[in-house]
Every structure is written in C-alpha cells, then in structure tokens.
Amino acid sequence: MIRRSIAVLASVSVPMVALMLGGYQGGLFAQFALYGVATAALALCWGFAGILSLGHAVSFGIGAYVAAWCGINIPEGGTILGILLGGLAAGFVSMLVGLVGLRGRVNVITFALLTFVLLFGAVEVVNQLTPITGGFNGLAGVPSLNLGDLWTADPVSQRVIVTIAAVGLLWSLIVVARSPFGGVLVLAKTHAIRAASSGYNIPAFRIGTFSFAGVVTGLAGALFSTQTQFVAPDQISLALATNFVLWAMIGSRTSLIGSFFTAIVISFITNELADRFLTVWLLAMGIIFIAVVVLIPDGVAEAVLKRLPERWHPRRVVTLTTATEDTSGGGAALEAKAITCVFGKFTAVDDVNFTARGGVHCLIGPNGAGKSTLLNALSGTVPPSNGTWRIGDTDLTKMRPWHMARAGVARKFQTPAIAPELTVAQNLAVARMGVTVHPLALIFTKWRADLTSTAWRILEAGDLVRLLDTPAFRLSHGQRQILELAMTFASRPTLVLLDEPTAGMTAGETASVAEILRTEASALDIPIVVVEHDMALIRSAASAVTVLQAGRVLATGTVEEIENNADVTRAYVGEGH
C-alpha cells in the first residue's frame, strides 16, 4: 500500500512540477521528462531483455522528424497524426533492426555495434535529405499540440499535457516490465535456452520488446518536437544516444523509474551548468559515470533500494495453486532413431537408437561420450545432423524448443538455469505459463500458476516452500538445482529430459530426488531420460540404462545387466582391468 501510494504521488507530481515551475523552466521540465521516457525505454531493453542499443536516439529522432514534418505540412490534425505516425515509424525501424540482429543467438556487443552503425547512417540521412529534414538547419515552426481550427494548446496546457503523456508512456513500460512478460525477458537475459525450453519464442519476445521500446521512444520524440517547436540533427545525434546510455546506467538500468528521474535531474543540472562550466561539467559527468560503474554498478536507484526496509522493496504477489491433474497423454514412449550430431570433422553422437518408456531411463558413459549432446538434440537446442524422434504419435524431429515445450517436452540443464533476479515463485510461474498463456496475454496476466503435485513434492524435498518469495540469487547451488527441477515438472510434461539433476546436492537431497523421480515416473507413466554419473541415484531410480561410448550406444538394459556387462566395465576402467 505504501509503495502504491508513493508511485501514484510520483506520477501526479510530474505534471504538477511542470505547472508550478513557470514558463521557461516548466517547458524545459516537459522536454526532460520526454528524455526520461526514452531513457526508461532503453532501460527496459537493456536491463530486462539484455539488449543494449547504442543508437537509441534514432527512434527518438525519427519520432521528432515525422511529427514535425506532418505538423508543418498537414494543416488539419497534422500534429496529432504526426505524433502517431512518429511512434509507428520509430517502431517499424526498430522492428527491422530487431529482425536483422535479434533472430538467432544474440551477442550483446555485436548488436550494440549494429545500432551504433545505424546511428551514424541516420545522422547522414538527416543531414543530406534537406528537402524533408531541413538538413543541418533542421525544421523550424513546428506547431504545438493542436486540432487544426478546433483547438490549439497554450504553453501551459502544452507542457501539462506533454508531462501527463510522459507519465502514461512511462507506466506502459512499467506494466510490461513488472508483468510475467517482463519475467520471461529476465529469464531469457540470463538463460535464453531455458526460456525457450519453457515454451517461449525468445527471438519474437526480443524483437517485440525492442519494437515496443522504439514506439514509446518515437512517441516521446514526437511530443518533444511539439514542445520545442523545432527539430534539429541534435535529436538524432551521437551525443543524445550517449546520454541515454549514461542516464540509464547512472539511474539503474533495472529501474525504469530510476532511469526516468535520473534523466530529468541530470538534464536540469547540465542545462544550468553547461553554459558556465561546459568543459568542467563534461569532465565531471565522465567522473560521475566512472564512479557509478566502479562503486555502484547496478545504479543509484538499486543502491538506494537495497538500503530501504524490506517492506518497501517491490515484490510481485505470485499465486501458486495445485493442479487438479498432473498429466495428459501418459504412457507414450520416446522413440529415437539414427540420431547423429556432427560438428565439423568431429562426430559427437553417432547413429544412436533407443526407446524410453514410462520410467526413469538413465544415459551413462565416460566423459565425452555424447550424453549431453544427445539430450540437447532431443530437446531441440542443438539440431542434429540426422535422425528422427517422437513421443507417442507426436513427431518432434523438426520442432524448435518452444514448440517442443508446448508438445509436452520438459528439459533441465546441467547447471541451474534459473532467473536469479526473480523470486522462487516467479521462476515457477514463468516456467508454467509458457505452455498455458499466449505471449501477448502475459503483459496483462496476473502472476499466478497452477503447479503439478510433482513440482510441489520437489519443492518440499528441497525445503523451498518457505522460500517462495525469496529472490533466487539468495539460494544455494543445491537449492537452485531443486528449483529448476521443480520448474521442469511445473509444465505437466509427457517427456522429461534431465541433465545431471542432482549435481552439487547433498546425499540426502539426492536420495529424495531419486525417490521422487522413481515414484512420479511410475505414477505419471511418462519417460524421464536422465544423464547422470551418480550410481547411487541410478541404482535407486533407473528402470533402464543406456551406455554411450564415443557417441555410440554400447549397451542397454537394467541396472543389474549393465553392471555385469564386461564391455561396459572395460569402457569405464580400461582393457587391463
């Protein structure tokens, strides 16, 4: 209640400050509030989705130029039309950039450089396209907010409306960031493959987020042109793009509100001091930035938040309930034929055939035998060079990881793949909603999930039920393993693929997990394929074992049959033994 009251008060204060500051200062405040919106949009991409744009000013400038041109050249309703078209144009360009740079595995540095190059290209276009942009001189005489002959905003109404719009745009960003959609972005930032294996089309999420941030930034730029009534190449410059990055970094790229107000405050200080101490002020900004990076890398807002009482910390209330049914379609077997994975001249998996029925089917073998690679191929994270596999009547061969997840395939990775910034309950909800909620609906969906009884049993075994509201970064390694295992079973799978699920756990935790895997595989009648080295778990849980050596199947049978197999013994301990 306290946090909500503070948020409402802060929102109302922005247009009130613009009203009370008076003509010149109030107008500046409205302009800086729009800079704050653009900075918050960058923070959404950078802090939540892990996408750094060094050309963020391009979206701002596109919105400003489109709105200015429409306002000047379209007498009736040109201003409003220009604002809308400015936002759409900026979003469209952002989408094109996203389609080029965000479709596959994203390298943050490569994408940042791509946007940096785009920035220089945009500056050159603005300078050379003089008939439309005014070139180096820009566009003057941009109308303020108006509806043609019906109504024209006076300066006071103009800045109040602009700041109200800025607050509205800021809250649209906050809604996305705090929704389950934002939770997916946070998980994908840390473990993109984990998010994809939970049912989310991560390239589409990233492109959509980058495009949305472009629309919001374009709208801010469009409103900026009506406020200043002048547009120049400065609105699409390297200096402005650099400022957006600096403001987001100093304010905190994981706090949209912190980024918003940091942009306003620093812009005001710069405006007051730049004319008098330009050289000194630029040096001071550099020192401030270096100090923030070194001393408080998470930004001022996060540093302040850590020192506030726990009750003031923002927490999403997550409702977790128990599923009425644990599975549908149990009894289907996994059938894999001729699975082959070749990397250059190296064959990691060579013509592997095996069938896993209801129960725990363990894959074992010496290091480098191809166990994890085979699991990656079966889960779609590494496309095999050859082979087919299906679960029951569902052919999984050419499916992407998110399609597999929706078809009932659940995957746990070798190292805990969770979102440390989310709470335990949020991680579970994100894992569950990937197969139950439409991606766009995640923005407006409450944090809630219907977990399976298996997931609850795993949480109880790891003593995590009491830690549901705890941020995952506070968990031990063993607890993180338990959490991801519970996330894997949260989606009501019909096939489970586990890569060393008990690595780093205590003997007691391992025994509990082995018992859960054995009983749940039998109760659900689903195949659980486990890559494991721990013979205690294998003896306790496995109903069948397949041994791999040099990428090929060496033997398949029960635990007893494998332990008495001379070929398996030689593979592990050598010919001389």
Automatic annotation (TrEMBL):
One of its GO terms (cellular component) is plasma membrane. Pfam families: ABC_tran, BPD_transp_2. Residues 334-575 form the ABC transporter domain. It is a multi-pass membrane protein. Its main location: membrane. It is found in: Cell membrane. PROSITE patterns: ABC_TRANSPORTER_2. SUPFAM superfamilies: P-loop containing nucleoside triphosphate hydrolases. GO terms for molecular function: ATP binding; ATP hydrolysis activity; branched-chain amino acid transmembrane transporter activity. Keywords: ATP-binding, Cell membrane, Membrane, Nucleotide-binding, Transmembrane, Transmembrane helix, Transport. The chain crosses the membrane at residues 7-26, 32-52, 57-74, 80-101, 108-126, 160-188, 200-224, 244-270, 277-296. PANTHER family: CONSERVED COMPONENT OF ABC TRANSPORTER FOR NATURAL AMINO ACIDS-RELATED. This is Unannotated protein.
